[in-house]
Design brief:
Elements: E1 3-6, E2 12-16, H1 24-32, H2 47-56, H3 63-82, E3 87-92, H4 98-106, E4 112-117, H5 120-131, E5 138-139, E6 142-143, E7 161-166, H6 176-190, E8 195-201, H7 206-212, H8 219-235, E9 244-251, E10 256-263, E11 267-271, E12 274-278, E13 283-290, H9 294-302, E14 306-313, E15 319-326
Parallel strand pairs: 2-6, 3-4, 3-7, 4-5, 4-6, 7-8
Antiparallel strand pairs: 1-2, 8-15, 9-10, 10-13, 11-12, 14-15
The structure holds N,N-dimethyl-L-histidine.
Length: 327
């Protein structure tokens, strides 16, 4: 661990755990070799992809962010009561800061804030936005991969406990086995007295869910197709972006949005000296967004050694916040 102090009014100490860089080309070659073909959704978030995702969160059909923000506001007094004072808030990913702002404002004297994120630029930007607003909260960002256990920096004011914050239903983008692995790591990171506040999108009318992933302005379609633009630029593939279309459908049985890029014609895509054939109409899987019931969520976290200690839903039961503790 090598902490460096940065400037600004509030002390910001970055811990760089030097996460291993992703092997994008290797992952893409592996995914294109599968039947059916698939690409990892974690590669959506280059600079343009992050910008498009931010735009998605403001689309009228994408209820998740709006409803979660309102739920956080409405539940904040109860959350502050359930979480002991002087928490060290540890966020998985760095988000846009809107939710973190509400959480830090509503908790009882949080001592420190630690976003954990692979991109150092995104990490410092998120801390920069919050440092001025919360001069009493030490900013201790960690550059690391949060899917593994992360040794946390120690706040100088000392703290009784850690509160991991994982909003946005980002957990839903992981397949069940990967979600369990992540939750097990979270349990280690937060420690025996820690808590986690996790946002989950709930199973509901498929019409509402499908609309959220097929907004009329086409921002989600552009977000999905940007994956191909990014791969062409970063690993030298030659996807014809205009020959694929975005398709997102809800599987009631699996309780998840399944997003595909569908080839509009027979074509060959080249990468690293290899050629991959697409039939006309062939669908390549690019993202899952799982939705939950109380039962499915409790089963998932139980396998990771966690339990729900408090739950809050919005009045329509569209989105939930769950406070978790080690089982
Ligand atoms: C980040 N994640 C929770 C979003 C979701 O809803 O699955 C990503 C997204 N994909 C399409 N729209 C939004």
């Amino acid at each position: 661990m090598t902490p460096d102090a940065c400037g600004g009014h509030t002390t910001v100490i970055l811990t760089d755990l030097q996460p291993t860089a992703d092997d994008i080309a290797g992952d893409v070659l592996a995914g294109l070799s599968m039947t059916p073909k698939r690409l990892p959704s974690k590669y959506f978030y280059d600079a343009r992809g992050s910008q498009l995702f931010e735009q998605i969160t403001r689309q009228p059909e994408y209820y998740l962010t709006r409803v979660e923000l309102a739920l956080l506001d409405a539940s904040m007094p109860a959350i502050a009561t359930a979480v002991a004072a002087h928490a060290h808030v540890v966020e998985y990913g760095s988000g846009s800061g809107r939710k973190t702002h509400r959480l830090l404002e509503g908790l009882d004297d949080p001592v420190a804030y630690t976003p954990i994120e692979i991109s150092k630029t995104a990490l410092l930007a998120s801390v920069g936005r919050l440092a001025d607003a919360f001069p009493g909260v030490e900013m201790l960002p960690v550059c690391a991969d949060f899917t593994h256990p992360v040794p946390l920096p120690q706040p100088s004011r000392g703290t009784g406990h850690t509160l991991v914050f994982f909003p946005g239903s980002t957990l839903g983008n992981f397949l069940a086995e990967d979600a369990k692995r992540l939750l097990r790591s979270m349990r280690v990171t937060m420690g025996p007295r820690g808590r986690a506040l996790v946002g989950i999108d709930l199973d509901k009318d498929p019409v509402l869910i499908e609309a959220a992933y097929n907004d009329a302005a086409g921002v989600t379609a552009e977000f999905t197709l940007n994956l191909l633009v990014r791969l062409n630029r970063d690993i030298g593939s030659d996807f014809d972006v205009s020959a694929f279309v975005h398709r997102a459908t809800y599987s009631r049985e699996r309780m998840r949005i399944e997003t595909h890029l569908v080839s509009q014609r027979a074509q060959d895509v080249h990468l690293a000296g290899r050629s991959f054939h697409f039939d006309a109409g062939e669908a390549m899987q690019v993202e899952y967004s799982h939705k939950y019931t109380d039962h499915s969520f409790a089963t998932l976290i139980a396998d990771a050694g966690l339990r729900v200690v408090e739950r809050w839903n919005d009045p329509q039961d569209w989105f939930g916040l769950r406070l978790l503790a080690p089982a």
